[in-house]
Structures are given as C-alpha cells and as structure tokens.
C-alpha cells in the first residue's frame, strides 16, 4: 500500500477548507455505533418497545415475546445488548435468554430465524444467556454482514429488561471511525430518484468492503441442500480469512463475502466515482493474482472453493487491473503484475481456435446458463481485454506483444461478426448453434467495441429496450432473471448508442424499483430478482439467501458520473480526459471526483437558448469537451476562470446528431457556454 493513494491524504487537505458536496445524501454513518430508528413490529408482552431506538431505554420482554427493529437502511456489524434486570438467572433451575435475528428484507423478519446465507434453510438465532445486568456483545465471528431489521426474542416464563441494543458498524474497516461518510466524489441532478440511486450505489460498495478476516466460514458448503429447506437453525460464522491486507471488496455484504472479479468490473468504477478507495481494489486484485496457476489461469472464486476456470471471470481480473491503472495512473502497480497479466492473456488466447474465436469450455460465469462454444459475451470480453492489453503495453513501453495482439483482435472481431451477428434481428446470437439473443453478450458487444458500425449499436440498444418489463431488463440467457449486474453494462450500451434517454429510463425503471419497493432496503441494491418483480432469483432455490447489497448492482453510480454529468478519464490517472455532459431529459447535472492526479468535475445547466458547463481538471493535464449533439446552430465559448488560457470560440453549424468536439483544452477551471443563434 502506497501512502500517496490513501483517501485520507486527499481528504486531509480538502476537509479543513471544503464541505463535502451533497453530504446530506450520503448513507454511510458518521459514527460506527448505531441504534435502531423505529419499531417494525412486536408480539407478546413487550413494554415500551420503542425505548431501544435510543441509547438509554428500558424495554421489558416477558414470556414469549419479540420485537423487530428497523435501522431505516441496510447496515452491518456486531450487536451488543445492554441488560437491566433479569428474573431468572439460573439459580433456581430456570434461565433467561435473549435471542437476536437479522434480515435485510422485511419479508424475512422473524422471531425464529435470520434470513439465509446458505443454499437452504434459514440462519440460526444468535442467543445470549443473560444472568444479570451488563453489556452482552456477540463474538466477532457472529458479526452479520448485512441487515436492515433486527428482532429481539425472549423465550421463557420470566422477564428481561433491555436498556440498549446497539450495533458496531464493521464495513470499511480501514477508514477512520469518523470518516465513513467522507466521500471524494459527488453527484447531483434535478431528479431526486437518480440522486438517491447514485448514493445508494456508493453505499452498497462500502457495505461490500469488509475486514478480510471476516469472510463467510462456509461451514455448510456442498452440505446443505433443498431437502432441509425448512431448517431454521443453520449455523453461520463470519470468521474466514479471504485476503491479505486491511480491507477487501467482496461480491455481497451478507454473502458470499468473497472477492469476485466479474462483480468488481461494475463496483470499481463506482468506487472511483464516490470514495476513491483504491487500497481495497488493490488488495482484492492481489488476492486473485496470487491464485494464478502455472498455466496462467486465475480461478473463478478463491478458497474455500476449488480453483475452477471461468473464461469470463479470468478476463475480468485483467480488466480490473486495466481499470485500476486508468483511474490511478499507478504504473508501479501495473508493472508489479504485468508479467502475470500477460501470462493470463496468453492463457485465454490459447482457447482461440482456427476460426479466430475462443471456444468456451467452462460453463462458469455470472450464474447464467448455456455458457459454452463460440459465446458472444465471452468473445466480446476477450476482445475488450486484448484492446486494453494493447493500451497497457503501450503505457509500459512493452512493444513486444502488441502486433500479435492487434492481429488477433482484428481476426476475432471479424470472425465474431461473421458467425454471430444476425442482421435481420439486429442482435448477436448467444453462440453458433442457437437463436437465443442474450442480454449479456449484446451489451458486452457494444461495450467492448466488437461491433463494426454504429447502426449495430443503435439496433442492439433499441432491441434491448423493447424487452423491458415493468421491473427492468430481463436476461433470456439466465431464465429471464433481472440482473442488475448485466443491466449495469446495458446502461453503458445505451449511452454508447447515444440514447441517454434510454439509459436514464432504465435507471429509473429498474433501480427505481430496487430503491422504492418496500421489500428492499431503501439504501443498497439487490443482486437479482424475477422479471415479474418477485424477490426470487432463479439460480437459487432459497429465496431468503438473496443478497440485498451487491456491488455488481451499482452501475448507475459510475454511469451518472461518467456518461450523464460527463466526467471521463481517458488515460492513466486522468492525464487526458473528456468532459461530455449528456443530460437527456435532465435540466441540470453535476458530478466530481478526485484521483491521485487531482480533482475532475463538471456542472451543466440547460438554459433557454443553450447550456452552460462549468468544469475543472488538474493543472498539467489536457482534455476535450464533447457535446453529443446540438439542436440548433450557435456558438460555444470556453473561458478559463483564472485567465491562464485564452478563450476558445467555436462556431457550430446546425448538425444532426454529430458531436461537437473542442480538443486540446488545458487543465484548469473553465466555463463552456453554448448559445443558439
Ligand atoms: C425462580 O423461578 C421462578 C419461576 O420461573 C421465577 O418466578 C423466579 O423469579 C425465579 N427466581 C430467581 C431468583 O431466579
Ligand atoms: C409476530 O407474529 C407474526 C405472526 O406469527 C409474525 O409473522 C411476525 O414475524 C412476528 N414478529 C415478531 C417481531 O415476532
Ligand atoms: C430459550 O432458548 C435457549 C437458546 O436456544 C434455550 O437454551 C432455552 O432452552 C430456551 N428456553 C425455553 C424456555 O424454551
Ligand atoms: C471526515 O469529515 C468530518 C467532517 O464531516 C471531519 O470532522 C473529519 O475530521 C473527517 N475525517 C477524516 C479522517 O478526514
Ligand atoms: C469460526 O468460529 C467458530 C465458532 O467459534 C469456530 O468453531 C471455528 O473454528 C472458526 N473458524 C475459523 C476459520 O476461525
Ligand atoms: C469446443 O471445445 C469443446 C471441448 O474441448 C469441444 O468438444 C468442441 O468440439 C469444441 N467446439 C468446436 C466448434 O470446435
Ligand atoms: C449455446 O447457447 C444456448 C442458449 O444459451 C445454450 O443452450 C447452449 O448450451 C449453448 N451451447 C454451448 C455449446 O454452450
Ligand atoms: C515510456 O517511454 C516514454 C517515452 O520514452 C517515457 O516518457 C515513459 O516514462 C516510459 N514509460 C515507462 C512506464 O517506462
Ligand atoms: C472501435 O473499433 C473501430 C474499428 O472497428 C475503431 O475504428 C474505433 O476507433 C474503436 N472505437 C473505440 C472507442 O476504441
Ligand atoms: C431511445 O430509447 C427509447 C427507449 O427508452 C426509445 O423510445 C427512443 O426511440 C430511442 N431514441 C433513439 C434516438 O433511438
Ligand atoms: C428512503 O430513504 C430516504 C432517505 O435516503 C427517505 O427520505 C425516505 O423517506 C425513505 N423512504 C421510505 C419509504 O422509507
Ligand atoms: C441445518 C441444520 O443444522 N439443521 C438441523 C436443525 O436441527 C435439527 C434438530 O436438531 C437437526 O436435525 C438438523 O440437522
């Protein structure tokens, strides 16, 4: 860990002078000690159940009784109960207990069990044997990775007084206790739903950033199955060490609590846009690269899972390194993994046969089905990884692999379009033997630029939008689940098709549902659900197992910052950048974030006769301003606020959908004003 990339250095400089913009939207707590905010429901004899919404209450549970508490948002951590008087301390043969259950969704609130972390059943109650007054804390292996609801249960004939129920919040273990809400990035626009979605995405990734000594112990791995699906006593511990380092970015907060390269492809850009938590990203990538075997393969999932191949997740680990380099410009880190990166690339290229395409031999992916053969998603991700490799090799002056990679990429692109593009349908088929047109492969074809022309991109965007249900974008390759993971890439695909309206519409539809449905947490994003809006995720038999805080569901956070407010880094660390606001039906959008190179921001206001964009990029960098299209002829004027650069004037003739690009803009604070003639 290099100190130069610590978020605290940036904040240390900034926090004394600057308030954090739009701080009121940040869901991360300002202190690690939390209390419930309200009573969800109560059964049996419980006096003053709402007493425990503060730190010094008095709530007496008598006989069989239970109260469910609501924290108002998804949280995580270790519970402590403060006990007052106890009627049965065991001295005459009876003993009082207080049990605790946890649930992310209101639908699994129960006085008998928690929601689930295993493939079947429900997790056991956490019992405290209470002998008398005092503080009773759960052992650390009984920290719960995510819950919005906590139920206190009393099960005997006596009574117990509880004076406080508090949680020690454990996510973001490497950040100081008072700094959990000290974001380096912000977003704001004139749509409150989108504002809440951006901040819920940022918070979801914080919830998924854990102490690596507290992964899931997986004591029932390959053991519990549907035959014991009514079990309400599944044992659970969070005490398995998953990575080295001080923090790890995992797939989900409640489960699996494992690093996952595919999930990181969505989470990493969102983290850069919000908290710039580079240390966790680095620890996470390192934990995958140490598992690389002599063939070059990086396994799908780390221990306790066996080291199996997933062609896509293997490539996603390489994409993670490329993203990290783009956002940090840290060539020291890139150099440290470059030989392994190239070995992993060669491993994937070894699956390309004489057709020029990769023949996928492992079904492992994001729990979709039918992953095999000349699969469009896998080949698009491969194409994208090769082109990223070419950029990385150029950045490191390692010219040796470049020409082979270029030739391989060109052939792969040509062969893929020849074999899998269906011109009539305007989409790619999943592989060479099916007519199924997947969501994942079509969005990845656009995102990877394996498409050969813009009409393909427009057709894919339009066809995908046609499929939306009232709950979002379904994935036919995965039993029609709604996958917020793949839909995160779909947001990017609509922006690349220059249809901002479609990107915003999908955010409002799908993430709006995830935000506002009463079964959700109103704070973090679920991993998947059915196309009819039921909280059923087809790959799982056990609905109580679904994770409500999954980093792979945070696509809007980066999409709003990079594609809507339009603050984009083009090369390492932001040495070159692009300001490309694309507001769709919004009238105002603003975003900013900091990297080790400095602060980048853009704030665009639509006016009666054009628009104004105030933007900022660090001194010593250069960039371009790109406006997707204008509805009128007019004039663009760029003024540097400190007068360091001369004004730039551009006449814009009326053009249909042609972007206006102003190149070679020096870093600094600028105002760009476009006025229609
Ligand atoms: C002993 O047990 C009885 C019956 O449950 C109970 O009412 C009483 O409070 C208990 N006393 C002590 C000191 O535990
Ligand atoms: C109260 O009882 C109802 C009906 O049995 C149950 O659904 C609910 O989970 C219980 N709530 C608590 C807090 O015990
Ligand atoms: C209450 O729960 C505890 C912990 O499971 C158990 O040991 C005890 O026997 C239960 N008490 C009653 C009265 O069921
Ligand atoms: C975080 O921000 C708060 C103000 O919101 C400030 O008091 C605190 O010092 C900051 N913490 C760090 C570590 O920068
Ligand atoms: C996790 O905690 C349980 C219960 O204390 C213990 O039996 C187990 O050995 C622990 N596992 C690890 C990996 O520490
Ligand atoms: C792809 O690889 C599998 C496994 O090696 C093989 O059985 C299959 O024939 C290959 N497909 C093609 C089209 O060559
Ligand atoms: C091709 O795609 C279809 C649809 O996803 C799938 O059922 C089939 O198994 C795939 N073929 C291979 C070889 O994986
Ligand atoms: C690559 O070469 C350029 C030009 O010679 C040099 O400025 C740059 O520092 C080199 N980069 C690395 C990582 O060696
Ligand atoms: C996409 O690929 C085409 C070649 O097919 C290339 O001309 C274009 O520059 C690529 N676009 C990007 C953004 O890399
Ligand atoms: C953009 O997508 C929407 C669907 O959300 C569609 O109605 C509209 O026609 C598309 N616009 C263009 C220019 O393709
Ligand atoms: C959801 O959370 C927001 C704050 O982020 C709050 O204003 C709103 O009332 C909450 N909605 C519900 C239904 O609890
Ligand atoms: C999953 C699990 O641990 N189930 C157990 C619940 O308790 C019953 C009775 O003690 C056991 O038979 C189950 O195996």
From TrEMBL:
Residues 1-19 form the signal peptide. It comes from the Eukaryota. GO terms for molecular function: hydrolase activity, acting on glycosyl bonds. The keyword Hydrolase applies. Keywords: Glycosidase, Hydrolase, Signal. InterPro entries: 6-hairpin_glycosidase_sf, 6hp_glycosidase-like_sf, Bac_rhamnosid6H, Bac_rhamnosid_C. This is Six-hairpin glycosidase. It comes from Massarina eburnea CBS 473.64.
